[in-house]
Amino acid sequence: MQNFNLIKAEKGNVTIGETAHSIGRKTENSTQHIKTPAAEKTKIGHIQIKGLKKEYINRRHAARVIGDPDVSGERVTVLDDINLEFQEGEMVCILGPSGCGKSTMLRIIAGFEKATTGQIIIGGKDVAGPSPDHIFVFQQCGLLPWMNVWDNVGLGLRKMQDKIAKEERIREYIELVELSGFEYNHPYELSGGMQRRVELARALAVKPDLLFMDEPFTGLDYLTHLKIREEVVNIHEYIGKTMIMVTHFIEDALVMADRIVVLSERPTRVKMVRKLDFPRPRNIVKDPGLSELRDEVFLMLGVSYVA
Amino acid sequence: MTLFWTKKREIIEIKAGTLLPLITFVAVILIWELTIRISGWSTRVFPTPVTVLQGFYELIRNGTLLKHSVASLYRVTVGFYLAVALGIPLGIIIGQYKPVKMLFNPLIQFLRPISPLAWIPLAMLWFGIGDQPAIFLIFLSSFFSLVVATAIAVESINPIYFQVAANFDFSKSEIVKKIIVPAIIPDVVTALRLTIAIAWLVVVAAEMIAVQSGLGYLILDSRNALRMDYVMVGMIMIGLIGLMLDMIMRRFVILKWQN
Ligand SMILES: Nc1ncnc2c1ncn2[C@@H]1O[C@H](COP(=O)(O)OP(=O)(O)OP(=O)(O)O)[C@@H](O)[C@H]1O
Ligand SMILES: [Mg+2]
């Protein structure tokens, strides 16, 4: 935490060009874009989802052998005509009932899966597949268990020619998530919260244009959850990249998001999109507007919230 | 092997680990001796531990035991390494590409249950008498199991790792080196342990038929000479080497990323 306060304090005196994060491939472009709003459409962190539809075939019977190719069964519409637009640099939180297709939607935006119909446009270009500019933090742990923290964080930097710059970058991001001293530990030697932080560091180290997070806080204890949440908010404020996060925790969405999206039950449609302009740091209990919105979202998800 | 342990409890644990098996072996030898004394069988039919020990001494002194052990080990080593060198890469390919699997899998599944010993007549016809038919049989005994075990190990890798690889723009060879190989090592080591045991079983059988050297040949030759003590020396040597091979395999890889 102190780490961030330090960085933020520094930021006031330092021109953007000199901060550590602006050395990356795309940052020069993005600062340009920020200065010229005319280039709105081609901003690298701008996402447009047009008429997205995803169907799965639901098995009619259990798989008879492993990898049984016979998946005949009825088609189930998971995502049904989703239209959304996210601005460059936004922190977007997606809420919705379990099984409604949040992970599916995120995987499609990140290029891991194909939409049945519809279009995903990121930075003015159609998504063709996964990209090192769009990093995905998985719902289950995506660290490679046979690599130590150092190698995991360096995973996206393999092509960096400059050895010294590469080492510096890895060290910088391990420091950012406050894991200095654990460089040579393997994931199994870390707590769940530390593993999440390593994964965040690995994702951020490549300076991606977009960061996708699928329930990054599940499985953490409450305090760690709150701490990492704060770290993510600080990181977002600091690097200003578009981040899309799926979560089950309505409070997370309200505290973190610039924009929240609430999805319905299957066949899933967008139930609500709301831009949040509440001042930060946010406090749901003290901000009447936020508590009102919380109750509204809870009701929308089928729970009459009792504080 | 206990030299480097510093904590007291661990020394005791390791000592118990060598002591208890030793007790079993001593007990077996005692029962063996007692059985002969009580039953009154001729030592020509059922040699006593002492005669077998004498046999050991004789065979070590005239170099026969070493010669035959080396011959067997050589065949197993060559055949096994051939199977590893071809089987594991093939398994990695089959595990990754469905069409390759469809091409090879039925053939492998068909050939796998045919005992390597059933190949002896053909092996002798093709390769004559000597090391080659035995090596060929060892190869057959290990190859198919290794291919299948490796392919299954590759198929069961958590798909998230491949998504991570795609996300960080891994090349094909990086996927193999940094994802597949490390992920399958635990399963493959287990398969290696199982297959080398089978290879060792097969070499002895093959040597009884196809060649004029090796521990299998020693046993057969001793039987023909009615030297049951030598037969038992051969058997014990097979057991000892089998134990040794398993120990080597077990120490093969120490996985530091698993608890
Ligand atoms: N590979 C697949 N094959 C068939 N159906 C699938 C597949 N993946 C997901 N589904 C179906 O799509 C629906 C949405 O799944 P998804 O994982 O996106 O839900 P989710 O909203 O992320 O749920 P949760 O909040 O529990 O993580 C589920 O009903 C699931 O059965
Ligand atoms: Mg999900």
Explained architecture:
The complex is a heterodimer of chains A (307) and B (259). With 307 residues, chain A is an alpha/beta fold. Chain A contains nine helices and ten strands. Chain A has helices at 2-13, 27-35, 102-110, 149-153, 163-176, 192-205, 222-239, 250-256, 288-300, and strands at residues 47-57, 75-86, 91-95, 117-122, 125-126, 134-137, 210-214, 242-246, 259-263, 270-275. In chain A, helix 7 (222-239) links the parallel strand 7 and strand 8. In chain A, helix 5 crosses helix 6. Chain A is globular. Chain B is mainly α and 259 residues long. Chain B is built from ten helices and no strands. Classes of the chains: A alpha/beta (307), B mainly alpha (259). The structure holds adenosine-5'-triphosphate and magnesium ion (MG). Magnesium ion (MG) is lined by residues 102-103, 139, 214 of chain A. Adenosine-5'-triphosphate binds at residues 56, 78, 96, 98-104 of chain A.
Fill in the CATH topology of chain A: Rossmann fold
Indicate the structural class of chain A.
alpha/beta
The poorly predicted ranges of chain B are 1-6
How many β strands of chain B by DSSP?
A: 0
CATH class of chain A, please? Alpha Beta
Please tell me what the overall shape of chain B is. Answer: elongated
Q: If classified by CATH, what would the architecture of chain A be?
A: 3-Layer(aba) Sandwich
What is the architecture of the largest domain in chain B at the second tier of CATH? Answer: Orthogonal Bundle
Largest contact between chains = A-B, 25 and 19 residues
**Total number of distinct structural domains of chain A:** 1
Distance between the termini of chain B: 21 Å
Query: Bound compounds, please?
Result: adenosine-5'-triphosphate, magnesium ion
Brief summary of the model shown:
Chain A is of the alpha/beta class and about 300 residues long.
